[in-house]
Each structure stands twice: as C-alpha cells, then as structure tokens.
From TrEMBL:
Pathway: Amino-acid biosynthesis; L-proline biosynthesis; L-proline from L-glutamate 5-semialdehyde: step 1/1. It is found in: Cytoplasm. Its EC number is 1.5.1.2. It catalyses: L-proline + NAD(+) = (S)-1-pyrroline-5-carboxylate + NADH + 2 H(+); L-proline + NADP(+) = (S)-1-pyrroline-5-carboxylate + NADPH + 2 H(+). GO terms for molecular function: pyrroline-5-carboxylate reductase activity. Keywords: Amino-acid biosynthesis, Cytoplasm, NADP, Oxidoreductase, Proline biosynthesis. Residues 160-264 form the Pyrroline-5-carboxylate reductase dimerisation domain. This is Pyrroline-5-carboxylate reductase.
Amino acid sequence: MKISFIGGGNMATALIAGLAGKVAQAGDIHVIDPNPEALDKLRGQYGVTSSPEIGAAVAGSDVIVLAVKPQQMREVALRLQSQLDARPLVLSIAAGIRGTDLSRWLGGYGAIVRTMPNTPALIGQGISGMVAMAGVSAAQKDAADSILRAVGKTVWLDSEDQIDPVTAVSGSGPAYVFFFLEAMQQAALEMGLSAEQGRELALATFTGAAQLAAQSEEPAEVLRQRVTSKGGTTYAAIASMEQAGVKQAIVDAMKAAAARGRELGEELGKDAV
Ligand SMILES: NC(=O)C1=CN([C@@H]2O[C@H](COP(=O)(O)OP(=O)(O)OC[C@H]3O[C@@H](n4cnc5c(N)ncnc54)[C@H](O)[C@@H]3O)[C@@H](O)[C@H]2O)C=CC1
Ligand SMILES: O=C(O)[C@@H]1CCC=N1
C-alpha cells in the first residue's frame, strides 16, 4: 500500500511508527511537511521519503492521510484537489473538520474516512473511532481499518455525529490520564515519597487498575466500592473528591472537548468554498 501523509507531526509520527514495515514498506510511505526537522526525523527513523509541499509525489498513493492541524485543513485540501486523479482514499485525522466541508474543499470528492486516533498509537496501544463517507468503497474501508489497526484498536461509528464524543473520550483522553498521573505524583512527593517511588507506584496503579477493569465483568463503580472500606482511607479520599465535585468536573470537561470539536467544525467550515 502506498501511503502519503500530509503533516508529519506528533500524530503522523505515531501512525508511521506502527505502519512502517507492516502495512506499508518504509519506501512506500511519503511525508509532506514544510518543517525540515520533522522530515529529517521521520526519514532517519523510519526510512520514509519526503517533500516540503504537496506535488506530484502524492499522485499514485492508495491512501492520503491528512494529519495537519484543523486550521490548515482547508488550505491543504484545496491544494490536494488536483492530485486526486487516481481516486485514493483520503483519511482525515483532524478534530472537528466535517466530512462535507472536506469533500467540498476537495472539489466534491467522496472517498473520505474520518478517524480520531490517540497518541498511545505510538506504542501500538491506540484506539481510533472511524466513520466512512458514502463514496468510500469496501476495499478502502478495509484499508483505513488496517492502517489504524496497525497502531491499536478501531471502533466504527454509526454516524459522523459520534466523532466529537469519541474525540472527547479517547482522542483527548490520554491527556486526562496524564493529568491524573501528574496529580498523583505531586501528592506522593508532597507526602514524603521520592519522585521515583511516586512515579512507579502511580504508574503501576493505573496500569493494574485499567487491566483489572478490562478483565472484569463488573462495572467500574463496583470495582471502586471494593477498594472503599466504610470509614477507611479510600472512603476519605473519595469523600474529598465528591465534595470537590471531581466527577462532575470530569463530565463537564469532556462535554467541553466535544463542544469544541463541533465548534471547530462550524468555525472552520463556514466558508463558501
Ligand atoms: N495529538 C493528538 O493527540 C491527536 C491529534 N489529532 C489530530 O491530528 C492532527 C495533527 O495533530 P498533531 O500531530 O498533534 O499536530 P502537530 O503540530 O504535531 O503536527 C502538524 C504538522 O503539520 C505540519 N504542517 C503545517 N502546515 C502544513 C502544510 N500546509 N502541509 C503539510 N504539513 C503542514 C506542521 O509542520 C506539523 O509538523 C490535528 O488535526 C489533530 O486534531 C487527532 C487525534 C489525536
Ligand atoms: O487537542 C486536540 O485538539 C487534538 C484532538 C484530540 C487530541 N488532540
């Protein structure tokens, strides 16, 4: 499979790390990015070919992955329009950008899959929500699935409306986990443990609890109750979090992420062309 990436930043790097030598031979991956340092790194680490701007190199690609920031998507799509003769699959990973707007910027092109991956893709532990527009063939849907499965799991969605909620849960989700980790490590330090001890204890707790939840038939609430002895230490911690409104704050934060996705789509898609 020949794959071109437009944008060679964080998320493209995570995807290329999983793909190179598996779904595509390194020489069949081409990256376009105006930043020479990003290209040097990707060429050196993964043996990809590269160019600083969209041109003939993308013609002949089976899949073109759009991995620029949402604010760059329109400009990139307008430039890409003339290179779509071979009818490749266009795979967009941008938050917010709606399929109809992307299709319009690509001159009414319909072979578009929107996906929302996440950074654990870097270590093959990602999860991606996926939605195909009407012009995507079964073979192209399979190609999109195999690209994202090279870096983790895929979940196909019933409608595009679900992609903003997916962005709020798993796309942005690693940041919430890191935030919680930061807080646990800060507390460990403030209570007299070393930074190294705090890191080891907090990380193993996260991994262990997540694995336990994944392997258990019980909901998270029941697993939590099993740690929480009445009048004990966990009880004190959970009572403190409840008093501070932590659960509702997380729910509100995730709704804000989804709303920002919708807002980005509306803001950046309101042009006439
Ligand atoms: N970082 C994350 O956790 C996730 C990001 N995304 C989406 O992935 C996309 C990329 O995000 P990141 O990789 O985090 O950003 P990034 O800033 O690391 O990478 C974007 C890259 O695009 C390049 N670029 C800018 N203008 C360009 C142009 N005209 N042509 C080609 N390349 C150009 C930049 O030089 C940069 O290397 C965004 O749309 C974001 O919504 C999706 C899921 C998760
Ligand atoms: O923060 C963002 O907008 C992107 C999308 C999901 C994760 N990072």
